[in-house]
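Shipment paperwork, digital attachment
Item: protein structure file
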Amino acid sequence: MKKSHILILVVIAAAVGILISTADDASSYVSFSEAYKLASNGAKKDIHVVGVLKKDAQGNVIGIQTGADRVSFSFIMIDDNGKEQTVTYNEPMPADFTKSEKVVVIGSYEGEQFHATKILLKCPSKYQEEKVNV
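Attachment content:
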């Protein structure tokens, strides 16, 4: 075999190794119930849960509480299966948090409480097409 063929095989083997090692790190969205089961079974990786913030009849977000340190906060989130869960976040509240359409929390359960390490927001877009009445 030529040296170039051996080099190409080594590069391909390295690429396959990298793909296999990062595939375990990929995560999909789960419900709070599934996240709790994973945590109960000893899963140590971060879990992604998607849902919406709990709102009253007028559309105002309810259940937000500031922590004793005035930086952290907790809120009530409803996952896609309708389960309500209090989520704590040890960072300041993200901008436009209360205006978000969907919320993705990344974290894990500690006891009965879900602790988020990251929060991703899907905010309403100012570029959404609005109805035009003629």
